[in-house]
Amino acid sequence: MRSSTLGTSHRVIVVDDDPGMLRAVQRVLQVHGFETEVFSSAEGFLEGAHLGEATCLVLDVHLQHMSGIELRRQLTRSGHSLPVIFITAVDSEATRKAALEAGCVAYLHKPFPSDRLIEAVKSVAQNDRKR
């Protein structure tokens, strides 16, 4: 089990249907000491994710069969309040507004600097540790 620089282990779930982006995000998170669980689809995530053990979710807005925003709404309806960081290659005011309304803690436009992702995840992890 890897230990993050925050002193305790934090696990981040990543959902993105772009294999290259999924690997890149996973690698960046692991280099910074975060454990990761990755999924290439919303369906795979819904079938296999361990939400109770996660610190946050990094979620692509534009997934193939179910949008990341709809996935977030479904999680909320199911009683899961896991913090979400949305990532997207197709940025628009409407998408940004929908992501904020769905309750994201950060919204990153691809390609984004890895330090912006790490800052967002660390912020969530620090807030999680305070509870």
TrEMBL record:
The modification 4-aspartylphosphate is found at D60. InterPro entries: Bact_response_regulator, CheY-like_superfamily, Sig_transdc_resp-reg_receiver. Keywords: Phosphoprotein, Plasmid. Coiled coil: none annotated. GO terms for biological process: phosphorelay signal transduction system. It comes from the Bacteria. SMART domains: REC. Residues 11-125 form the Response regulatory domain. PROSITE patterns: RESPONSE_REGULATORY. PANTHER family: STRESS RESPONSE REGULATOR PROTEIN 1, TWO-COMPONENT RESPONSE REGULATOR. This is Response regulatory domain-containing protein. It comes from Microvirga ossetica. The lineage of its organism: Bacteria, Pseudomonadati, Pseudomonadota, Alphaproteobacteria, Hyphomicrobiales.
